[in-house]
Write a sequence for this structure.
């Protein structure tokens, strides 16, 4: 696909940058993908889609005014005429707009190029292996594979290019009682033995779900939250929890932590860590974030994510966060609870593998609600007794990662992003499991 | 090249069925915060979805190139994908699931993006932001506007030829008040999206709403916490639209009932045998799938596989009758459905979706409903939502609430929430508001599907009264 080649985009960018007048500045953000999506239910193919798409977002500045525009990109001569038309329309509009006192002007943050293009088996072969291995179980999910490219170039000479080739099988297995376990096999290199091991592990977990479900009454219980459940909690924290802009505008959710009225547990440390290698360090403006940025360290607030626009508005220093000031590569530090001790230390309570559909009950007190999902078990005296019927929880982050946090596991798991709204996501997180002395279930 | 010519250029491909769906959309959005212009964004997207059936299996190929050689390459790849996938088909389909349809649809909105004058609208947003500046405690005052113009042209080898132009517009506002007592937000417009276009906007009404949200945010700062107790719950349409969406719309999607969505969005507590028998709600409850409401957000002539859309009752007198499912899902389940196989845009395959899902008005006036309540609460404007993957156990939070005591509205309370289970909740529907309480709205961001898709849907509702609901507030 020509549109995913850096030389095409660079040539196009240079041609449109040459059209700028003396008082104009421009930043181009490119994203594109060539992806196969194959959707499964009952270990059969429901739908298959081959997708090629690319588009460019432009940020245009004239004097102290700014606007942005976007267009599809196909690496043909048609792109330039469409971009020029949009630039001319933007010139017509921009003079009538109010000035923007907080606009972020492009700068030269360097030139980088990174491509991780491992060879993958043919899509048909990978899908065939999945369906062969799952032929005797009820598997639902999606297989996705292909190239993703992201780039930014601006009128100051900055240029960053990132391209990766990866795949994921995001799936769940179901037994005859329609109890389920969730799993993910993802990466840049495909290993049929790893795939087999992944599906076999999921089948073993599913076998534990064959016992009759236990209906657990609402109330307070000891709980172990597995890494994927903790990943959900981290995701919701990205929704205003660590954004400077959200806090300044009165809809942040960790106000008391920021104001040092409350602390989290010294066992809890959260940071942005781009060494995970799942996402480029440059943001929409091409600014390169620090490779590691502590957000909460041993229970104490350290940093908000601050983008350059927020920095301009509140006269702060930017840490080159994304425009939305959400975490792109969060990592929670591990602790000392070994995998083999989890059930023993849980004693009697709930083993929760996944959480679902989290939202705020009360942002002011960092209270969230959500559901248990997939393989969740009732544990008595350190032994799994039965899967549970799903429960709703309502609990504060100050309890979960604060006063009720007993132990953090000594291992953590990667959670590569599998979202695909608009286009396939890059990024992900790395989270351990946590053992909580108390967790409130309300329905 | 015109779509008709592209279709003709693929006539030698020897496929069982082929359709082309061209989507060309343009959009503009502007926002102002604290009387500072935050930016204007104008965008364009244009692409083509090729759908091919071979051996009873559909496959899709999406490209944003209209060069004939690129379209042909995409079609050949899609044909190959359909043939290979047909060895593992979940279900086999035929041309019966692709009716021949010819027609056209245009939203009532008339203002095109070419005619858009940015300064007129930035001036309005500035004015709305200023209107919210009524006290130093109102620290955040946002006003934003969005317009989308989406043209879809669908043609198929069965002779279908459908052109639809949909305008969508919305204005939203929010005010956040802050003091040592905390932060409180009031908003307007998140549920007010329509197909009417900016030419229908009532600027005078918007200014009234701007003042109201700022005043109510200030009032909430001083308000008591919502009590925790089981009581009667009166819900305004700007909360009910999401209650309808999450606890009626999603569980009635036939692809969820079939299990296609199990790995992501989830499935449903509704079973195939429930249609025609399940007492979903009280006898007052009538819910329609209605793509014919003029100006409502998800009105259209035909869905994205060319199935003509008609008004249908999903729930009548409280009994479940019909699900939200395409001709494909209807065939798989042997159940009636609706014309709702829709896709986000050209780059996604169409799946079972909501369109306009409306709770029909009843006969009670608002004052009659309030008078009937001994102890209850009137909640407005959604601020939080969560429901399980079977669409049973839900929890919603609202921005604003007022207690009802001995038939009268009394104290305003903050951080109101309620929780329940879908079918019992709708069976506790005690009174349903008349046309004077009925509001038509929509939601622009319904997420579902693998790969993920976000789509616009419409919801309309009167004010409704429910008995004995668990209500609670915020705080630790």
């Amino acid at each position: 696909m020509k549109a995913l080649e850096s030389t095409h985009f660079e040539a196009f960018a240079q041609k449109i940058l040459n059209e700028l007048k003396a008082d104009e500045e421009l930043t181009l953000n490119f994203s594109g993908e060539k992806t196969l999506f194959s959707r499964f239910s009952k270990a059969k193919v429901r739908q298959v889609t081959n997708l090629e798409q690319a588009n460019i977002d432009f940020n245009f500045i004239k004097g102290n005014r700014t606007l942005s525009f976007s267009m599809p990109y196909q690496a043909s001569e048609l792109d330039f005429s469409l971009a020029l038309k949009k630039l001319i329309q933007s010139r017509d509009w921009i003079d009538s707009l109010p000035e923007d006192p907080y606009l972020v002007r492009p700068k030269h943050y360097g030139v980088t190029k990174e491509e991780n293009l491992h060879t993958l088996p043919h899509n048909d072969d990978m899908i065939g292996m999945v369906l062969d291995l799952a032929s005797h179980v009820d598997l639902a999910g999606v297989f996705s594979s292909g190239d993703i490219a992201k780039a930014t170039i601006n009128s100051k000479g900055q240029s960053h290019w990132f391209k990766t080739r990866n795949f994921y099988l995001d799936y769940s297995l179901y037994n005859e009682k329609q109890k389920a376990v969730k799993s993910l096999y993802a990466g840049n290199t495909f290993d049929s033995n790893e795939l087999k091991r992944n599906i076999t592990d999921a089948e073993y977990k599913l076998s534990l779900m064959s016992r009759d479900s236990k209906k657990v009454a609402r109330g307070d219980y000891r709980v172990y939250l597995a890494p994927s459940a903790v990943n959900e909690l981290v995701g919701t924290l990205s929704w205003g929890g660590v954004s400077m802009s959200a806090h300044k505008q009165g809809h942040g959710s960790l106000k008391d932590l920021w104001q040092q009225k409350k602390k989290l547990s010294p066992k809890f440390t959260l940071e942005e860590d781009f060494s995970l290698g799942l996402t480029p360090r440059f943001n929409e403006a091409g600014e390169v974030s620090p490779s590691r940025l502590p957000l909460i360290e041993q229970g104490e607030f350290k940093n908000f994510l601050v983008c350059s626009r927020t920095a301009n508005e509140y006269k702060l220093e930017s840490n080159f966060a994304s425009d939305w000031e959400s975490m792109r590569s969060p990592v929670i530090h591990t602790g000392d609870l070994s995998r083999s001790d989890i059930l023993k230390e849980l004693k009697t309570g709930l083993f929760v593998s996944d959480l679902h559909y989290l939202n705020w009950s009360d942002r002011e007190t960092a209270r969230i609600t959500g559901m248990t999902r997939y393989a969740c078990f009732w544990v008595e005296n350190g032994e799994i007794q039965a899967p549970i019927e799903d429960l709703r929880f309502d609990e504060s982050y100050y309890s979960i990662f604060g006063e009720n946090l007993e132990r953090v596991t000594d291992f953590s798991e990667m959670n590569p992003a599998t979202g695909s709204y608009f286009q396939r996501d890059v990024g992900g997180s790395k989270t351990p499991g946590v053992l909580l002395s108390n967790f409130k279930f309300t329905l | 090249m015109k779509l008709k010519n592209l279709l003709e250029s693929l006539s030698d491909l020897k496929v069982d069925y082929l359709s082309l769906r061209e989507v060309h959309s343009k959009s503009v959005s502007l926002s102002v915060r604290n009387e500072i212009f935050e930016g204007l964004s104008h965008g364009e997207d244009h692409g083509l979805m090729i759908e091919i059936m071979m051996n009873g299996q559909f496959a899709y190929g999406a490209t944003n190139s209209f060069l004939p050689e690129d379209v042909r390459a995409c079609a050949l790849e899609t044909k190959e994908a359909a043939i290979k996938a047909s060895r593992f088909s979940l279900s086999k389909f035929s041309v019966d699931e692709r009716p021949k349809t010819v027609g056209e649809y245009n939203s009532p909105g008339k203002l095109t993006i070419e005619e858009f004058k940015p300064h007129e609208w930035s001036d309005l947003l500035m004015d709305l932001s200023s209107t919210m500046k009524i006290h130093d405690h109102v620290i955040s005052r946002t006003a934003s506007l969005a317009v989308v113009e989406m043209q879809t042209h669908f043609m198929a080898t069965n002779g279908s030829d459908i052109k639809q132009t949909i305008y969508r517009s919305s204005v939203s506002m929010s005010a956040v008040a802050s003091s040592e007592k905390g932060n409180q937000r009031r908003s307007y417009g998140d549920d007010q999206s329509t197909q009417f276009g900016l030419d229908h906007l009532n600027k005078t009404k918007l200014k009234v709403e701007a003042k109201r949200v700022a005043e109510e945010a200030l009032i909430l700062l001083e308000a008591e916490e919502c009590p925790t107790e089981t009581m009667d719950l009166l819900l305004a349409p700007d909360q009910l639209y999401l209650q309808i969406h999450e606890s009626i719309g999603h569980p009635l999607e036939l692809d969820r009932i079939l299990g296609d969505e199990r790995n992501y969005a989830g499935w449903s507590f509704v079973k195939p045998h429930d249609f025609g028998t399940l007492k979903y709600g009280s006898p007052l409850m009538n819910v329609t799938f209605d793509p014919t409401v003029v100006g409502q957000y998800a009105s259209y002539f035909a869905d994205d596989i060319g199935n003509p859309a008609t008004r249908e009752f999903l729930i009548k007198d409280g009994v479940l009758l019909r699900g939200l499912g395409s001709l494909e899902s209807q065939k798989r389940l042997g159940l009636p459905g609706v014309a709702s196989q829709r896709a986000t845009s050209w780059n996604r395959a169409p799946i079972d979706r909501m369109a306009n899902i409306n709770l029909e008005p009843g006969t009670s006036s608002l004052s009659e409903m309030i008078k009937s309540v001994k102890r209850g609460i009137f909640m407005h404007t959604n601020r939080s939502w969560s429901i399980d993957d079977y669409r049973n156990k839900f929890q919603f939070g609202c921005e604003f609430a007022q207690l009802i005591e001995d038939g009268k509205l009394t104290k305003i309370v903050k951080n109101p929430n309620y929780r329940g289970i879908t079918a019992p909740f709708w069976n506790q529907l005690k009174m349903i508001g008349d046309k004077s309480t009925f509001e038509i709205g929509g939601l622009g961001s319904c997420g579902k599907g693998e790969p993920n898709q976000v789509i616009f849907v419409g919801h309309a509702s009167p004010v409704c009264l429910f008995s004995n609901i668990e209500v609670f507030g915020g705080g630790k």
Summary: Chain B touches chain A through 84 residues (CB under 8 Å). Chain B has nine helices and 23 strands.
